Every structure is written in C-alpha cells, then in structure tokens.
Amino acid sequence: MSPSKLGPVLVTGGNGFVAYHIIAKILAEEPDCDIHSLDVNVDRNRHPNANVHYHRADLASAADVERVMHIAQPVTIFHTASPEFSDAPVSAYHNIIVDGSRHVLNAAVKVGTVRALVNTSTSGVINDNHTDMIDATEEMPILRFPQQKRIYCLAKAEAEEAIQAANRNGGHDDQGVLTCAIRPCLVFGEHDVGALGKMIAVARKGMSRFQMGNGKNPYDFVYAGNLADAHLLAAHALLDAWGKPRPTDPTVRVDGECFNISNDDPWFFWDFQRAVASETGNPVRPEDIVAIPTWLGLAMGLVSEWVVWAISRGTRTPNMTREGIRFSTLIRTHNITKAKRVLGYRPKVGMQEGIQRSVRWFMEQVNA
C-alpha cells in the first residue's frame, strides 16, 4: 500500500537546519508536494524548488500564524520552530515556543484542513542537565521547576504538553487534529551552524585536544537526515490513523504519544568532537589529549560567565558556560525501542557517514 499523501504541508521554523532536512525528505518522497515554510528568517537554508514557498512570519504573532495557515491550508504540520537555545533572550523561549505553539494549534483548528501535527520537542524535557540520563524511555516524567532550571526545556515541556493535550481536539473527536511529539537527542548534520558549527570552529583552531572530564561519558546523537525520516514516519502514521478510533492498545498508538529518536549508536561525547576534528583535517592523537577535571571546567565556566556579563552588561553569551561543561560531561543515552516498534524507525545513515557528510558540507561552504 502506498504511503498517505502529506501535502499540503506547513513547516514552522522551516528555514532551520532540521526543517531543511525534513523538506528535502518530503520532496524526495512526494516531489509535487505543496510545502510552506513559516520563519522569521527566510533567507537561509532555502530549497530551490518551485513547490516550496517561504513566508516571513513571527510565531509569537497570532495574526502572522493565521495568515500563513490560511495561505497554506495544510493537511500536515511539522512544528520545528525554536529559538537557538544558547543565544535567544529569555523572553523568546516563552513567546516563540509556548505562545507560538498555541498560535499554531488555534490556527490549525480555525483553518479546518489539518489532520496531522508532528511536534519537534526535545529529550531535555526529562533531564535536569545535572544528572546522568541512562537508557531513558518516554515514560520518564517531564521535569518542572525547581528540578528543571533550563528555561528552554521548561518552555519545550509546556509546549509539548499543550500540543499533546490538543490531540483529537482534546480526546473527544475522531476527526480532530492528531498530534505526536518527536524527542531527538543531540542533532547534527549539514546546515547545523549551531552545535556542529562550534565544534568545527574549535577543530580549526587546533583546540580539539582539550576535553572536559575523563571522556568516558556515552552520548546519543542523531543525524538530521535520520531525524527527518522519523518525522515523516510519524506524520504518515498520524494520517493513517485520522478518522479512526484511537487504538486501545497503547503499544501501537501514535497520536498523543512521544518518541525518542537517536542514531541508536552511543559515542563518547569527546570522541565525537575528535571525529569531527579528524574530518576537518585536524586529527588528535590519543597521547595529545588534555583532560581538564570537571570541577576545574565548571570553575572556568563561572569565571567566563561573570567576565562576559561584566563586559557586555548581560547582552552577550560566553563561549564557555557551566551549563555547557555539564552538558559535555554527563551520560545521555536514550532507548528508542518505542520508535522502532510503533513508527518502524531505523537510522539509515550511520554516525561516521553522518559526520563525514556534515563536515564535507561545512568545508564546501568555506571553499565556495
């Protein structure tokens, strides 16, 4: 049986790097699909395809969202929009992630064409960024303040819960919008100028020999193309379930559910950094590795935060922060059994190939 048609499609944050990969997968699968991107910056990560339409709009504005929703008349929504968590002002997290999600939900109900909404959440909603997360499952509780102190994760948790609660119009209508949440781990891939871009910058400076902690903390990553596959699998499953009663068997349900997504191949965090460095032509020999104790790294992060705050009066974000140090020294692994069983997800691109593809793209941009 041929897969259900996705289009027309609306992608919020459609010019972000994850959305770029989602749109590429849609075009590969459904070349004539009518795709609409809603983003505040429509000049980056564009697809040169006449079927992809870019709309400059602000998720924090209900009127903007309704305008684009009315133009797109989507059947499927991929809700990927999010501010860059390291650079955005605190207010942006609530305005874009929380209010923006409510605006998307309200506009989707008003337009009346939407059947499926796949929300890009984060595995960070179940982790406090202080504690190791080992083989985490979707059943782990979402953390709230004071256990969770990261503003980004608090906002993502609130948005995820609102979108999940809206599933089937609050659970009362088989014809309502069906929703689910994708919870990726650390994403990397072509067009990732955030986390991967910073790693490549470190490699080019010859600084990849430095690591925080003992380097023995396994970490789950996911290549963006694989993450895009997971989004499309979820969307097809939601569309296939639309108009039917929700299954009573929770082990096969998609709508109203959340799914961990990874490459199913944990690496030591700092081995990943060094693999990136090697692909840039800056390999690090084992005997050249300099391990900085975690306690010292945290102290360095504190000093860095205070110095940058004092110089910029709070307008700049330091390159080294205590949060970043903790992030790179914790164990963060995820169980993706549910995504495999329910969505049929399998990562098609392995870690090494994903790193090679990603770094190659960056190097081509530099040499272009």
What does this structure look like?
The chain is of the alpha/beta class and 368 residues long. It has a domain at 9-193 and 221-268 and 333-352: Rossmann fold (3-Layer(aba) Sandwich). Helix content is 42%, strand content 15%. It has a 7-stranded parallel beta sheet, sandwiched between helices. Strand 1 (9-12), helix 1 and strand 2 form a beta-alpha-beta unit. Helix 6 packs across helix 8 (269-279). The longest helix has 22 residues, at 90-111. The model has no long low-confidence stretch (mean pLDDT 92).
CATH architecture classification name of the domain at 9-193 and 221-268 and 333-352: 3-Layer(aba) Sandwich
Rounded mean pLDDT is 92
What string, H for helix and E for strand, traces the elements in order?
Answer: EHEEHEHEEHHEEHEEEHEEHEHHEHH
Outline type: globular
CATH superfamily of the domain at 9-193 and 221-268 and 333-352: NAD(P)-binding Rossmann-like Domain
Instruction: Please report the distance between the alpha carbons of the first and last residues.
Output: 43 Å
- Please describe the biggest sheet, giving its number of strands, its sense, and whether it closes into a barrel: 7 strands, parallel
The CATH class of the domain at 9-193 and 221-268 and 333-352: Alpha Beta
Organism: Talaromyces atroroseus
Keywords: Oxidoreductase
Family: Belongs to the 3-beta-HSD family.
Protein name: 3-beta hydroxysteroid dehydrogenase/isomerase domain-containing protein
